[in-house]
Amino acid sequence: MNRESLKSLLQEMDLSRRPEEAPVRERMIALLEGTPECFQRTAFPGHFTGSALVVNSDGSRALLHHHRKLDRWLQFGGHCDGDEDVLRVACREAMEESGIERLIIASRRPFDLDIHEIPARGTDPAHYHYDIRYMLIAPEAAAPMISAESHALQWFTPEELEALPLDDSLRRMIAKWRAIVARRAHAPQPSGQ
User: Fold this and answer.
1) What CATH homologous superfamily does 3-186 map to?
2) Predicted confidence (pLDDT) per residue in 76-96, tens digit
3) Residues forming a β-bridge with 73
4) Domain boundaries, the chain
5) Fewest CB atoms within 10 Å of the CB: 13, 81, 107, 139?
6) What is the residue-wise DSSP string for 61-96?
7) Would you tell me the crossing angle of helices 22-34 and 3-12 to the nearest 10 degrees?
8) pLDDT tens sequence across 159-174
9) CB atoms near residue 54 (< 10 Å)
């Protein structure tokens, strides 16, 4: 994926069931068109990032990390650092931060679009992450390993996540995940012969 294919992907996304993400998509397209260095972390006031909600193999739990710098539970993700393939960035960051290899891409289409403010830190001013988010599936019996970016890693059920002080955009992703799990639970099962 490159800048042009990302732009096409964003333009073609059906957001009729996700209308709150339509203005986010428009801002992302504007950033792609107006900021040549939008995949570099030095692009201010905003730049692209890639992240992923990692779920276990049967879809019953999601893995979050307690971010060391931001001191809160988050999905995995990070800066593109010049890589225009945001899905590859999300996969790389999820693998590096969770220690889980061979993560399975649930869909090449973004699972969620979000723009959020990052507070000033060191010499970096407050700025925005234009975050393109995916869902990744951990292989069966995956054993997460904590990285230097985290205080902790933990698998959570949807009910356990409800009790955590999560930001609204992560709650939105969790609600989408829960809807997928509910649809699967109510889908007709193939009959055994």
Assistant:
1) Nucleoside Triphosphate Pyrophosphohydrolase (3.90.79.10)
2) 999 999 999 999 999 999 999
3) 66
4) 3-186
5) 107
6) -EEEEEETTT-SEE-EEEE-TT---HHHHHHHHHHH
7) 160
8) 999 899 999 999 999 9
9) 29
Residue 148 burial (CB count, 10 A): 7
d(CA 164, CA 74): 11
Dig out the tokens for 5 from the structure. Answer: 């294919």
Residue 193 has pLDDT above 70, yes or no: no
Across the chain, mean pLDDT equals: 93
**Rounded to whole angstroms, how far apart are CA atoms 11 and 2?**
14
Q: Tokens at residue 39, please?
A: 């995949």
Whole-number Å distance between alpha carbons of 131 and 134: 10
Q: Which residue has the tokens 């096409």?
A: 8
> Among candidates 123, 122, 146, which has minimal Cα distance to 67?
146
> Do 158 and 129 contact (CB within 8 A), yes or no?
no
Cβ count within 10 A of residue 59: 16
